[in-house]
Model the fold of this input.
Amino acid sequence: MANDDGKTVKVLSIDGGGIRGIIPAIILGALQKRLGRNLYEVFDLIAGTSTGGIIALGIGTTANSGQPYSPDKLVDLYVQNGPAIFKKNLLTPVREFFLSKYSPNSLEKTLAIFFGATELKTALTPLMISSYDLQGQRPFMFKSHYIAEHPNYNWEVKLVARATSAAPTFFPPCHLVKGPEDYALVDGGVFANNPAMAAYAEARSLYPEFTNVVVISVGTGDRQDSISYAAAKDWGLIGWARQIVPVMMDSVSEAVDYQLKFMPGCAFHRLQPAPLPPAENHMDNVTPENLAHLQHTAREYVAAHSADLDTLCAELKEGRVSNMPGIGR
Done:
């Protein structure tokens, strides 16, 4: 899988999934320990959606006092702040009929503390974070490598994280305004909950001289939900409103997995625990028991696939094909 000079473009893609971001954070921690260096030093492009976008920004910018966060620190972010971000009360069932299920205040406060005033231009390797613009009715990609030629796209990282994680029905859209630019952004999971295909296409554009691409796609656990015909046949607006987000995001992820397996010049590796127990399916289950279960599921996956991860890391050891984070494309 190498071109004439023996180098291959390496892409890391991280799925969305709310609190289930604990799973890819732990898997990435295992990869980083095996590689013996930061992930931004290994991957030529890191892409993420929603919770995966938050992880990508954490490991790929200088938000940690001039350094990237380790995946282990990202696990702490979820465990320590998840209960406040997805805080329920007696009025939550009523609220979600009229407003977003959760107030964005705790999410925004957490992101502000975690990322501070860090800007996207500090990216240590090219980053691509997905969102969707309701006003323009089109996908919106935050690309760190776009900033060199278009400085107006240098947003604060905390705003990028807020935009990519604005899951419909869970949080309100993120309103970003800069000069003439005006966007109403929601979770990129509405079109790319698994951003691996978009990342593959971006890598082809960024590095056209390399014919081969390795894509490491890290999931947040396979929900393995089942909805019977009897259950769905009488659903109207309210019935579908409760299910459309997970159905849409899961179907998109699985379609991307299928497509990338057959892309020419692409070595595709999917790191995805499956199936998740019913209690772990939900993106907002932040009970102490579920937080512990998610960590156990991820560590169990790492242990069961230790030899595979070793082999994969041997393939990644040569590192990036480029040392230039600001490519300007």
